[in-house]
Amino acid sequence: MSYVCRFCAAPLEQVVVDLGAAPLANSYLEPEALLEPEAHHPLCTFLCTGCLLVQLPAMASAEAIFSDYAYFSSYSSSWLEHARRYTEAQRRRFGLDEGSLVVEVASNDGYLLQYFRDAGVPVLGIEPASNVARVAEQAGIPTINRFLGAEVGAAVVAGELDPSCDSRGDAGHFDSSAAPLLGRAADLVVANNVFAHVPDLRDFTAGLRALLAPGGVLTIEAPHLMRLLDEVQFDTIYHEHFSYYSLLAAQRVLAAHGLVVFDVEEVPTHGGSLRIFCRRDDAPEAETAERLATRPAVDELLRRERRYGLDDPATYRHFAPRVAAVKRQLLSFLIEQADAGRTVVGYGAPAKGNTLLNYCGVRPDLLPFTVDLSPHKQGRFLPGSRIPIRAPEAIAETRPDFVLILPWNLRAEIAEQMSAVRSWGGRFVVAVPRLTVLD
Ligand SMILES: [Zn+2]
Questions:
Q1: How many angstroms separate the alpha carbon of residue 55 from the centre of ligand 1?
Q2: Which end of the chain lies in a sparser environment, N or C, as judged by fewer CB atoms within 10 Å?
Q3: pLDDT at residue 26 in the model
Q4: Ligand 1 mean position, distance from CA 47 (Å)
Q5: What CATH number has the domain spanning 73-311?
């Protein structure tokens, strides 16, 4: 059997990297679950040579992934700061005020929309995880508990959303604070860190288009494929992450749904992401001449992507051997330390850590535990590897020789926070893009 591209429906024939089979990266285990088997799903990424979209075929149902999502954005201070700066910049650039409407898709617990609300800009969140949507509502962020698609997008703008059930007939909810915000299109649609995570890309993109006012702006943030390939960030591949974008591929997907990319920025989140600015292809001429005029950054980045070879399928064949090298380096390091009687423990329990540890076959014999700041994760176990997650204090109590930082994108912040490790001669290590002991 062969898979087909979720955008252009061409058969997927070129493997970018095959990471074997693994459990869903965010399905942390309760202690009693250790007695049960765990479902493993293939984790093999493909390049569509027709449209250049790198993707994981949808294998696990979207409901299983998103219906009770454990990730609450508000726990990371650097993430909040990123969101705050984003809202300030867009509010100024696009003149958003009390007469505007900002709609965020996959709005989580409202961590980003709160900054618009605090500045007096009306906001509406659309969040598929019902437990997370309720947290947002309780924090005073009007939120609709739905998956976005063409139908939901159109119903929001038409003010015809049925509050009792969603488009699939499932229970979904929104509280009375959301009702007055229905029936109008958005001046800004925020789709940060969701575009990579939607299984039905076409329906979702149509939903984004449906939400947008004629002169409105859509911003999308997604990890940049060029950085993933260049810096061997293979651990950012996991089941919840269906699509991996170059601007070349994203521009094509958006254009097919009546959306024009008019600006792009490179932002540091998730190891290097693109912030893509879009307008409707029928935006008023006066707007496209000024506020929504196409910026040189778009052509400049497309040129760089072509120079890197992202328009040539052969380029993608260089990736898998570099990934295999990371595995050999990490295992060699861990085995060498174990043979010498030295201890290595983990820091962090991010999704990317699960991809790394499961692909490399690391188990508690080589990494006896990891620690995490989130109380939701402490006391649970990493899926697949079944490595226990403890509170950060466990590091000071056990004084390991090495701390393997799993969220390598936060390595400076973590090494700083945990600087006490150096007091007993402990050192920090990262595995990606190559095994490195930090100075
Ligand atoms: Zn395709």
A1: 9
A2: N
A3: 84
A4: 8
A5: 3.40.50.150
> What kind of fold does domain 318-437 have according to CATH?
Rossmann fold (3.40.50)
State pLDDT tens for residues 152-211.
999 999 998 876 654 444 455 666 788 888 999 999 999 998 999 998 999 999 999 999
Distance 81 CA to ligand 1 centre (A): 35
CA of 60 to the centre of ligand 1 (A): 20
3-state helix, strand, coil in the chain (%, to 5): 40, 20, 40
CA of 253 to the centre of ligand 1 (A): 9
CA distance linking residue 245 with residue 274, whole number of Å: 9
- Which H or E run contains 246? none
- Give span(s): CATH 3.40.50.150, the chain: 73-311
Distance between Cα 256 and ligand 1 center (Å): 12
How far does residue 109's CA lie from ligand 1's centre (Å)?
33
Say what the pTM is. 0.92
Distance 234 CA to ligand 1 centre (A): 21
Res 151 pLDDT > 70: yes
**Distance, CA 4 to ligand 1 centroid (Å)?**
8
**Contact status, residue 125 vs residue 136, Cβ threshold 8 Å:** yes
Tens-place pLDDT, residues 20-53? 999 998 889 999 999 999 999 999 999 999 999 9
